[in-house]
Every structure is written in C-alpha cells, then in structure tokens.
Amino acid sequence: MNVKNSLEKCIRAVVFINCEDDKEVKHIYMKNAKLLRLDLLNIKVAIDGPAGAGKSTVAKELAKKLNFTYIDTGAMYRALTYKAIIENINVEDKNKIVELASKIDIELKNDKVLLDGIDVTNEIRTPSISEKVSYISMIPEVREIMVKLQKRLSDKGSVVMDGRDIATVVMPDAQFKFFLTASPEVRAMRRYNELTSKKIPVKYDDILNDIRKRDKNDTERDVAPLKKADDSIVIDTTNMSIDEVVSKMYNIIANG
Ligand code: DC
Questions:
Q1: Which atom of ligand 1 is nearest the CA belonging to 125?
Q2: Do 16 and 50 share a domain, yes or no?
Q3: pTM confidence score
C-alpha cells in the first residue's frame, strides 16, 4: 500500500485513527523493527583524528551504509579559507576573517560543498588551501561560529561527523566516538594518491612535510587542539583497507 508521508523500508503497521483523510496516519513499529532504521533514532557518530587518517573517506562510506547524514567539518574551514583567498583577504587578518565567517553561506549537500550556492568541492582540496586553513582554524571566534553551525547540523537526525574536535567539543554527547590514526608516511601516501587521481600535481615529500607540520599545529595549538576524547575508540588504520575500517565501525554501531 502506498500511503502519503509514510517512510520507506520499514517493518511497521500503518493505522488510521478516526480520520477521514490520510493526515492522521500513525506508524507503529513491530517489536524492535525500529532498530532496522538507525537513521531515525538520532544517532550521532563522531570521528576525529589527524590529517590523512582516512576520516572523510571512511565517514562518507559509513554514513552511506547507515543512511545517516555525513557532515565534513574540515570542508567548512576549507570553504572559509577558499572564500578568503578569492576575496583577497589575508588569512592572518583575524578581524576580516571573523567578519567573513559570520556571514558565510556553506551548505553540505550529499557529497558536495556549496559556498554561496556554488560547488567548490574540488577547489577546497588543493595544497594551497591545506596550507592556509590552519591559520583560520586557529582563530577562536571562527571556531565558535563553525561549532555553532555544526551543532545545529548535528541536531537534524542521525549523523556521521568528522573533524578534530567532534567528540570533545561539537558532539560530546555522541553515542559513538572514534579516533582514527595512521603513520604519517601512510597518511601522506593516501593524500598523494587522492590528489594525483584528481590530476592535481603534487610531490610526495611536500605532502609528508605538510602532514608533519599540520600534526604539530593541530596538536600543539592553544585553541581546540586535536585531542582524543577519553571515551573514543582508537582505530589505527595504517594496515587496514577502507572497507575494513568501515566494517569495524559499522559493526560497533549496529551491535551497540
Ligand atoms: O580534515 P581536513 O584536512 O579537511 O581539515 C582542514 C583543516 O581544518 C585542518 O587543518 C584542521 C582543521 N579542522 C579543525 O580545526 N577542526 C575541525 N573540526 C575540522 C578541521
């Protein structure tokens, strides 16, 4: 039966209670059937870790498998950096960057990052953005704006969110918290492969140096340093494939 406003893929009874039209339809789930629809249970999955640990790839796949919304918080800092560059604003000019952040329009739609309605998904991944984004993500007022936005996004149904401060600051109440790591060399090789597959010319050694520099910046900065939450599950992905990592996380969530 096709009922207006009904949800797909559910094992449930549809009951019409004292109503003449279909607006009063009630969906009653069979015992435990709701567990088949984790996406309806407002489950929050936080994934943190250093650059290149595989967070975004894994988070994207995991979200797809669970039918959750994926929120890439690094993309938000990157989009702001990109906007600063195209508007000729020095990324070290704190006041101007904060002003820009306060009126930025970033939308994460499926796998796309929209800045003022324009698709900038590839543009925000270049090495020049990676290099400058650290300055911007170190500004406390910028983080305040971004965290507020991210908290708002996390309240809309079940989500997988990845970043550096997700389990500690943005979603400390997340039911599932993961911290992904991998050796700097493996992380550099992954980023190198990712960029060259997109025809972005890069050198492996430059990427490795950038990763080491960013690790230092991310963990030693005074503002929101990259830190594992006490209750995060650590997964070292150095010798694991994407599928293995995703399966491991999926099983923890589905059995949790
Ligand atoms: O994950 P990524 O490489 O796309 O992140 C880009 C930058 O943004 C990186 O330097 C760390 C920073 N970042 C952050 O400070 N907090 C987050 N929640 C996400 C990213």
A1: 4
A2: no
A3: 0.83
